[in-house]
Input
Amino acid sequence: MCIVKGTKADTVIEILSKIPLKQRRKVKEVTLDMAGNMGLIVKKSFIEATLVIDRFHVQKLALDALQEIRIKHRWDALDAENSAIEKARNNNEKYTPILFSNGDTLKQLLARSRYLLYKSNSKWTKNQQKRAKILFEHYPDLEKAYKLCQNLSWIFNNIKGKTSALIRLAKWDEKVRQAAFKSFNTIARTMSIHYKNILNYFDNRSTNASAESFNAKIKAFRAQFRGVRNVEFFLFRLTTIFA
Output
């Protein structure tokens, strides 16, 4: 195992070049994100490898765009509530927020909807189903954005073969353009730039999910100690516990 400090392309390429070329030629596929430095590292170090954009990085962009829309509505709701409170105070009245049928105020509805938007509707709890129904009735744009995310997930989960995937992703791109969400349009442009490497996923359905999971474990382990002073001992403990 090789651990390199940082992600500077020149540094990583220099260290990987110490591995014999014959060994590096054996690497046939590498999953990565859409960062330019990572692509450069792979192209320079593993010349026989196919680059595969990890599906979860693509889906995360869509989910981030969805949450961006929700957050914007939440700030608007906060501003509206503050204005209503000030108005009531100026009129010597008591402010009473409007409650929905599930007991949420508008501000709470938008805050508490965060996690349900990450999940498939088949995995919603009864409370989440009720909250989602209210949310989508008041914010149709959130429902439209949510469906775009779920549709993208469905493509990665169910479509087999590059040709079918290309057709489905093109249709998804058209839906994005019709929806006219600025953040989703940015994602569509990013995907069009990297589409060849994204489509490579549909050959072997490779992801770096296990590496991302291990990375999350390392971060959680490090957080327990609020940082690391002795790097060598920290790495020793990591290998002892997780290797």
About this structure: Residues 9-54+205-238 form one domain.
